[in-house]
Amino acid sequence: MTPRLLLNPGHSPAQRITDDAELPQALQSFGLQPGDLALPSPVNAHDHGYGIRTLDFGALDDALEVWIPGLRLRPRTDPYLEALVAFGRLARTGVGATMHCHNSLNVDRLVDEAHAVTRAARNIGIRLALSCPLLDHDAWAYDGGPQRLRPFLSPDDWHALAGTIPSYAPIHTQLAAVEAVAAANTSPLIDVQYGPIGPQWCSNALLEAIAEASALHGRRIHMHLLESPRQRLWLDRRFPEGVVPYLDRIGFLSPRLAIAHGVQLRPDECELLAERGVQLVSNPSANLRLRSGIAPIASTIKPGRPAFAIGLDGTGLDDDQDLWREMRLLYLLQGGHDLTRRLTARNVFDAAIKVGRQVINAADAEDFTIINYRSLIADALFDDVDEAEVLLTRMSARHAKGLVIAGKEIMHNGELTNVDFNAAVSELLAQARADLPRLEKQRPLVRALSAATRSYYASWPGIS
C-alpha cells in the first residue's frame, strides 16, 4: 500500500508518495513505510499537565464547582516528573504540542516549577505553551470567597479549612514572575503566556494590568471563561454590561487571546470574540464530565477564519488523553441534525492543527504525526474514501506510529525515543503513594468542603 501525505485534512485528499523526495524536508530523513499516512500533528490547545490524573486521587467527576475541592487531594510530587509523565502520555498518542496551564498558586515557586515543566518538555521533545497562573480572588466560592461556605461547614471543619485560605501576591509581583519565567526559557519550542485563571478569580485591576502587559510585550493570554452555569450567573451579577463587553472595553480581547471552555457564551458574545480574532478552545469531554454543557462552537465558525481549537483539559472521554477521540466527540456533538452537516471535517482539522498552533504561538511549526493507516482501512472495499473522514471515524491513539517535532523523531512505534516513560510513571506513582498518609487525613475535610460547596450553590435562586 503506497504511503500517503495528508497535508490539508478536510481540504484535499492525501498525496500518494512514490519517492521520499516528495515529502516535506522534516520527514525526508525518516521516510514513510507502505501503509503509513503522515499529517501535520494536532495540538492539545488546553490542558493542565496531570501526570497523576484526577480520578487516581479520588476526585470523581461532578459539577465543576463541587469537583474543584477534590483537587486538594493532588499528591505532592516532583513537578518535573509530573510534567514528564503528562507530556509523555500525549507524545505516545501522536500529539507533540500542548498548552499547559500550570496549577501552582504560589508565585514564589512559579519560576522554579516552570523551569521543571519546561525541562520535561525539552527532554521529551514536545512543543509547549506555558500559561502562568494569575489570580487575586479566592477560588473557594464566587460572590464572597470562603466566608460564604462557613454556614455550611461544622465549626471543626471551618477551623481546619480556614487556615488554608491563601493570600495572593501583588499584581506587579505576579506579572514580574511571568516575565522572569519567559526570560529563563528561550527555546524556540516553548512559549510563555499570561494565564489569568478566569475573570471570577481575578480583580478588575488584575485583568486590566494583564491586558496592558499583553499589548506592551506582545505576549499571548490564555484564560478560562464562562465554563459553568454558576459562572454565568455570577459574572452577570458582577459585570452588568456583560463580562465579554467589559473585557473588550479594557483591551483584553485580541488575536493574542485564547479562551478555554466558553460553554455558556451567548451568540452576541461569540460574534464579538470572533470579530476581535479571539480563539475559543473547546473541551467537550471535560465539559460533559463536569456537567457544564456543550460549547456553542457553530457560533464561532466564520468563512475562511476558523476561530476554535480543541483541548483535552487533562481528561478525555476515556480518561486516556486521546486527542483523536476528542476530535471525534466534538465532530459528533456539533454535527447538528439537518441534511447538511453543520461542522465539517475541514472545520475540525483546521481547529486541531491551524488554530491550535495559533493558540500555542507556533503558526509556522512543521510537525508531523505518522499513522498506521493500513490498520484503519484493513477491511475497506474502496481505497478512495476521504482520509479525513476515516480519521474522524476510526482514529485513536493506538494507531499513532511516529511523531516528528521540529525535525526530530520523538516517538517511534508508540515508544518515546528520549525518555523511559514506564520508569517515569513508576517513579511518579511511588512519590504519590508516599504521600498517602497526608492525603488520608485530608479526605474527610475535602469531602466536607465539596458538600458545603454543593449546598452553597444550591441556595442560589434558579440553581438546582
UniProtKB/TrEMBL annotation:
Could you tell me which Pfam families the record lists for this protein? Amidohydro_1
Instruction: Spell out the family assignment given in the record's similarity comment.
Output: Belongs to the metallo-dependent hydrolases superfamily. ATZ/TRZ family.
Q: Which residues form the Amidohydrolase-related domain?
A: 39-335
Gene Ontology molecular function terms on file: hydrolase activity
Key word Repeat present in the record? no
Record-given protein name = Putative amidohydrolase
Sorted alphabetically, which InterPro entries does this protein's record hold? Amidohydro-rel, Metal_Hydrolase, MTA/SAH_deaminase
UniProt keyword terms in alphabetical order = Hydrolase
